[in-house]
Amino acid sequence: MKGSSTMSSSDLCPRQQMHGFTLVELMVTIVILAILTMAAIPSFSRLFTSNRLATQTNEFKAALQSARSEAQRRGAVRGTSLRATSGTENYAPGWQVFTDDGLNGTLDSGDTLLRQQDAPPAGTTTTIRRVLRAGAAGAFTYSDATAPADRMVVTFNTQGQNMGSAPAFFRICDSAMPTVAGRIIQVSIAGIVTLDSSTTVCP
């Protein structure tokens, strides 16, 4: 037909110019990602450590509560004890909960082992230490016990009371990252187990 023209598909849909990243652009992107990752690693490490401390604090708190409950439940037995297996005031290497008919804080032949926490995997840096509290409310400070021999055990009588002469305090920290706030567990004279602090300074 006169005046008509033939149009190809390439005329209707012009070809767009396509291209990818250049080597320089790719290298710059990789460098930026590396910088951002390095900046984020400390925050992730602190978050991971804080979460782990919270978990281990809850586990140790539950062990203390279990020891108290067993003392109240077993009327024929004079009490129960939770004792560090390390022979020191550091409970992180493990502990035992046992009936303590003699209320002497030791697992004697007539006592029954109720629960045992074995040593954690090698490389674990969590510490659970019996500490002393000083100062006024809102400004408490906690320090390592000066006489650890009598601080490696907590004993509850059949009323669930702490048989010690004062409340017991335990500080949970991470020795590899002491800048992360530690936790303090308190066992009152009445035997009540509570979280005394979640912002304590670790040594």
Please, could you describe this protein's structure?
By secondary structure, the protein is an alpha+beta fold. The protein has one domain: minor pseudopilin epsh domain (minor pseudopilin epsh fold), CATH 3.55.40. It is about 25% helix and about 25% strand. It contains 2 helices and 9 strands, in the order H-H-E-E-E-E-E-E-E-E-E. The chain has a 5-stranded antiparallel beta sheet with strand order 5-4-7-8-9. Strands 3-2-1-6 form a 4-stranded antiparallel beta sheet, with helices on one face. A hairpin with a 6-residue loop joins strand 4 and strand 5. The longest helix is centred in the first third of the chain and has 51 residues. It is elongated, with a radius of gyration of 30 Å.
Count of discrete structural domains: 1
Give the mean pLDDT.
Answer: 84
| Alpha plus pi helix count | 2
Strands of the widest sheet, in order across it, are: 5-4-7-8-9
Label the overall shape.
elongated
At the fold tier of CATH, the topology name is minor pseudopilin epsh fold
Biggest sheet overview = 5 strands, antiparallel
**What oligomeric state is this?**
single chain
Write the H/E string, N to C: HHEEEEEEEEE
